[in-house]
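Reopening: structure tokens for the NAP complex, inputs below.
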Amino acid sequence: MKRWTIAPGKGIETLSLEDVMSPTPAPGEVAVRVKAVSLNYRDLVIAKSFYGKGVKQPRLVPCSDGAGVITAVGKGVSKVKVGDRVAGLFFQKWPGGPPSLEAHQSGLGGELDGMLQEEVCLHEEGVTSFPSRFSYEEAACLPCAALTAWHALFERLPLKPGQTVLTMGSGGVSVFALQLAKAMGARVIATSSSNEKMERLVKIGADAVINYKERPDWEKAVKEATAGRGVDHVVEVGGAGTLERSVACAAVGGHIALIGVLAGQGSLSNPFLLVVKNATVSGIYVGSKEHFARMNAFIEEHAIRPIIDRVFSFAEAPAAYRHLESGSHFGKVVVSLG
Ligand SMILES: NC(=O)c1ccc[n+]([C@@H]2O[C@H](COP(=O)([O-])OP(=O)(O)OC[C@H]3O[C@@H](n4cnc5c(N)ncnc54)[C@H](OP(=O)(O)O)[C@@H]3O)[C@@H](O)[C@H]2O)c1
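Re-run output (same inputs, fresh job):
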């Protein structure tokens, strides 16, 4: 079988296609023929810089997110069977309950080899079902981006109908957050650097859009759009570089789900603002298998479909990375293995 490997931190150009023996499932494991993989910003971070202390291997099979069909099962496997369509779980060891160090050290395509390969063996607990109407390409969008958006909005301070959500940009996490929030009956204010993408954000349900390049003081635009009240939830994918403005956007009692690092360096100069707003900042790191099950049910109930920007072939994986790197995408970038 073929697989892509990369040298973490050494650049996208170190992606290399290899021929290796097909893996055989050990007891408790299943063999999955991978049909589709989606890329996340994390895959770029791992390729280009570093990712915590987790990535220890000199070469790694990249990408956390993939879906496929089970082709063989090891001894003792009882929860899934040959022929089941499954997605790999980002965290192989977070079945549910609170997060743990063990869970955080089990990330596919980071701490562990990932999904950008034709065949993979995973523990039977490390795979999940997905909505049956989904293609493999759609299912491959769920494990990181969708689950992170779900966790941010529904698992900490759960979003209620009628509340207001701020999403940032039009990448994988933010577009899922918009779709999930609209399905819940929330009002969504979305930012983007592109007027064309803003039109698309409106088409998929955004109630108000702000160009954060044209309005560097976008927190003021958010306040204007909420009659000065602020938003109940911020899906914060910018990180340190946007946190100050996100805190300014939050309503009294608001929730800032801190997720990403897109906006680079910055700082929160006045943390006391959180106090006077009775606001909550939550660090969100993907989610558990239990979260995934609740998300699947919600996606089914509300007939949500992942928004795929472009599908590349397996051989074109480096071009898929370059496309994500360009930031020109809207939603998810997918690699199909046919
Ligand atoms: N903590 C977690 O568990 C977790 C999970 C998933 C992702 N993340 C993080 O969340 C972030 C988003 O990930 P992703 O995979 O969704 O990324 P992505 O698909 O690559 O999205 C990138 C988009 O974000 C927008 N963006 C870029 N810089 C921005 C800025 N300064 N302010 C506002 N928006 C900006 C741009 O949208 P426009 O072109 O519309 O401006 C860009 O196209 C990344 O930092 C990633 O590492 C964290």
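The two ends are 14 Å apart (CA to CA). The mean pLDDT is 96. Marking as resolved unless the reporter disagrees.
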